[in-house]
Write a structure and sequence with these properties.
heterodimer, A: 9 helices, 0% strand, B: mainly beta, ten-stranded antiparallel beta sheet, eight-stranded antiparallel beta sheet, 11 helices, 35% strand, globular, disordered C terminus
Chain lengths: 181, 669
């Protein structure tokens, strides 16, 4: 079914909207959740929660790109879950590794970035990256794919992926430093 | 909340255009290997690397070939040269766009504690007396790497999946195919679901990729009970002696189809803080012939994926590939020695700045900094599979992010082993090299299924995110060339200036352009080669027979009084058309003022133009009349608009009346 029709169903408060979303984007959302949580059961729970939140958010939200809208909701829920899980000391995963990597360029403190309009900054930063570097960056830090997974998707070696990510993180570091100063 | 977590979370809110939509095609079964590997790595303790002490030789694990009638891969071609001058003169020259450095390039950098961290099972050593080595053309390289390789047909992939399933004692229950949306008949992979009764697992997933690589994934994990226990010591997770891999080679010999498996090992690279460095084991087909041994090491291999589960190490998947089965043997090329390659490298003026903060010591490659020499084949997404001498050169890094100060930095430099005289620089010297580099795909796929290297373009229009390559040929097919008429009318014809068509028309100009789209609206396609435009001018005349139809009432996209010309496709097999639909057919194209389905021709509103007045005069009281129109000076063009829609435009002199450039008088095929 066309996305606009699915959104229309949400607006009509038809429960078929959830069924259609699940049918069309279930796998997609599951990949996002599974990448972060690395647990089939948790991923299922996360994606089920995503349908519930989508139901509550549409309307008033009227997403232009339903896939990314649902993907973002899923990602946020998964991050909350991994945070709770880490607090429970149930072990860390790829998401924690991503955060550790990002700490290389922004540090582990909790004050430096206060007050910075992060969303706008990141949009500008991403716009400056070369398309391929941007994609690798987003596959790692948005979708939480492992370095090896990304290497496979691009048919390049892991070293090349690490190098690309490293370059992008360095660029982010410089970008944020300039903004702070 | 930590800064890094704030960034990680804030990334979730960036604009949609920066988020590559991965659809359902990105997650492929082998990816689970990596996920599990990270868990395993985290769980495993440091072990002593003992593989060299296994005493294992290929003879100890020689399998009788019981799968002769059920072979998954065809044998690859390798024929030793006869050493004659005629043979060497007949070898095709290989295009290389790195000839300004004699084909030498820096491959990648890596951190390690010492050169022994780069030890592996490479069967090549400098004492081998090799005068020549084979070169191959990779037939599975299609379009850009984004969607992966494609070579095998649907039927072949299905057969391979069935054979793989039979080798695992099961059968295929269902299959799904993932297609490259931009290249016709390019299957990225097949996924087959099979029962897992034989191994006591719920199900078995078999993926066969476009280049024939097989990935098996078990629904439930398999323990090492009844054989070699899967432990760190047996090499199931990392380190160890690799006996777990050898045990599994026996257990799954019908699937692997390796008669003489040889244990291979290599270490993963270290992180900047010194993590990683795990040893991984794999298998390749052994051979008495040293060249075949080298080829098999690089292309014909298998590996097992282990993961930690409830404090036990278990098997969750198998990978098998034989890339040369999807490659064309070009010939057995004379090679230089490792020493000659080293001298080439030392005399080559390579840039001292390798990658950002990695530099050559003293700005040049010095012999004392070359720590290791190997012979390898480039076996990633390359146009040609060629032998290279890979030199591991110790370099410097001025970055303070390398937190473990005991780590050293290395860069891999590759020198072509094939003699330089067998390469040629095929870059058009007029092309802007920067723009060419910004066009990430190495090959362009055309509607007729052929392809060309980007360096063979006649023109390149530079742009950071939208470079365009233009070629001096284009493609047309004849009216009625939609998919259901393809057999009748033929497929796409590649035309160049000066070509004569069988309907008597001459091609006076032709060009085809492709764009690399990596930003804006297209970014969700992850950066793609897109059709950009195509133009063909024809001289001569052609007749087109069909019916004129006058619209009676206003309707969707039409108004009362509009005239439509509907050619009779059975009578007009040789009228040229040009089209670029989603699947390279001429079907269902949106055009201004109406639609064309590859057969209908829209002539515009009768109120506007002289020509239509002429056509209108053909009507009496009828709504439908049969006419034959004469077309001359036909211009065919197609281009992509900024909003991503595609526009077709054809102008011609029709029935003795010249059309002008307005869409109402153009003929759209």
């Amino acid at each position: 079914m066309d996305d606009s029709r699915i959104v229309e169903l949400y607006f009509k408060r038809s429960e078929q909207a959830v069924e259609e979303s699940r049918s069309k984007y279930g796998k997609y959302c599951n990949i996002i959740a599974d990448n972060i949580l690395r647990s089939k059961e948790d991923a299922e729970e996360c994606v089920n929660e995503a349908w519930f939140r989508a139901w509550n958010n549409i309307p008033p939200a009227k997403p232009k790109k339903l896939a990314l809208f649902l993907g973002k909701i899923t990602r946020n829920i998964a991050i909350d879950m991994i945070r709770a899980r880490t607090a429970d000391k149930r072990g860390a995963g790829e998401a924690e590794m991503c955060i550790d990597e990002l700490a290389e360029c922004v540090g582990e403190e909790d004050k430096i970035i206060e007050g910075l309009p992060l969303r706008d900054l990141l949009n500008r930063f991403l716009a400056e990256l070369l398309p391929r570097e941007r994609e690798i960056f987003m596959l790692r830090y948005w979708y939480t794919f492992s370095v090896k997974e990304i290497a496979r998707q691009f048919n390049i070696n892991e070293g090349a992926v690490k190098m690309s990510l490293y370059r992008s993180r360095c660029s982010l570091q410089v970008f944020l430093s300039n903004e702070e100063s | 909340m930590k800064n890094s977590e704030k960034i990680y979370r804030a990334l979730g809110e960036v604009d949609d255009e920066y988020i590559p939509y991965i659809g359902e095609t990105k997650r492929r079964l082998p990816l689970k290997f990596a996920a599990a590997a990270s868990v395993t790595a985290a769980a495993a303790a440091a072990v002593i690397f003992t593989v060299q002490n296994t005493g294992f030789s290929p003879d100890e694990l020689h399998f009788e070939n019981t799968w002769q009638d059920n072979k998954i891969y065809s044998d690859y071609v390798y024929e030793k040269s006869d050493g004659s001058e005629d043979y060497y003169e007949s070898l095709p020259k290989i295009p290389d766009d790195r000839m300004d450095t004699k084909g030498i390039y820096a491959s990648y950098t890596a951190e390690a504690y010492g050169i022994s961290d780069f030890d592996n099972g490479n069967p090549w050593d400098e004492s081998m007396e090799l005068d020549s080595l084979p070169a191959y053309k990779n037939l599975s390289l299609r379009g850009n790497a984004q969607f992966g390789p494609g070579y095998y047909t649907k039927e072949e992939l299905t057969k391979m999946a069935e054979k793989a399933a039979a080798a695992l004692g099961t059968s295929v229950i269902s299959t799904e195919f993932e297609y490259n949306p931009y290249i016709k008949d390019h299957i990225i992979y097949l996924e087959a679901e099979c029962g897992g009764e034989k191994y006591g697992v719920g199900s078995i997933g078999i993926s066969i990729y476009g280049n024939g690589a097989i990935s098996v994934s078990f629904g439930d994990r398999i323990s090492g009970e009844g054989g070699v226990p899967f432990t760190d010591e047996s090499g199931a997770s990392r380190g160890g002696d690799g006996k777990a891999t050898l045990f599994l080679a026996e257990k799954f010999k019908e699937l692997l189809q390796l008669e003489n498996p040889v244990l291979n090992f290599s270490k993963e690279s270290y992180s900047f803080s010194g993590d990683g460095g795990e040893t991984h084991f794999s298998l390749y087909e052994g051979s008495e012939d040293p060249v075949k041994r080298i080829l098999n090491y690089n292309f014909n291999s298998a590996s097992f994926g282990f993961t930690a589960s409830d404090n036990a190490v278990v098997l969750y998947g198998i990978e098998r590939s034989n890339k040369l089965a999807a490659a064309e043997f070009l010939g057995d090329y004379p090679i230089i020695s490792a020493e000659e390659a080293k001298q080439m490298l030392l005399s080559c003026d390579v840039p001292p700045d390798i990658n950002g903060s990695w530099y050559l010591k003293d700005g040049v490659i010095k012999e004392e900094n070359i720590k290791k020499t190997e012979l390898i084949y480039n076996n990633y997404y390359e146009e040609f599979f060629l032998p290279y001498y890979q030199f591991t050169v110790e370099v410097e890094c001025d970055g303070d992010w390398i937190t473990d100060k005991n780590l050293k930095s290395y860069c891999m430099y590759c020198v072509p082993a094939v003699k330089t005289e067998y390469f040629f620089d095929d870059i058009n010297p007029d092309l802007d090299k920067g723009a060419l580099a910004a066009f990430f795909s190495t090959e362009i796929e055309f509607p007729d299924g052929s392809s060309a290297r980007k360096s063979q373009a006649s023109r390149v229009l530079p742009s950071d995110h939208y470079p365009i390559l233009e070629y001096d040929f284009a493609f047309l097919r004849f009216l009625g060339g939609a998919e259901d008429k393809k057999a009748e009318n033929g497929g796409w014809i590649k035309v160049r200036e000066g070509d004569a068509l069988e309907n008597g028309l001459f091609v006076s100009s032709a060009d085809y352009a492709a764009a690399w789209c990596g930003s804006g609206e297209y970014y969700q396609n992850n950066g793609e080669v897109h059709f950009y435009s195509s133009n063909i001018e024809l001289r001569g005349s052609a007749e087109i027979t069909g019916s004129l139809y006058r619209v009676k009432e206003d309707g969707e996209s039409v108004s009362a009084g509009d005239l439509y010309f509907c050619p009779d496709s059975s009578e007009n097999a040789k009228i040229p058309i040009i089209a670029e639909g989603e699947d390279n057919t001429a079907a269902k194209l949106d055009i201004p003022g109406g639609t064309a389905d590859g057969r209908a021709v829209y002539l515009g509103n009768i109120e506007n133009v002289y020509l239509s007045d002429y056509l209108n005069n053909l009507f009496g009281d009828d709504d439908l009349v049969s006419v034959t129109l004469s077309l001359e000076n036909i211009k065919l063009s197609a281009r992509e608009n900024e909003d991503g829609t595609r526009e077709l435009r054809t102008s011609a002199d029709i029935a003795g009346f010249s059309t002008d450039d307005y869409s109402t008088t153009n003929v759209f095929f």
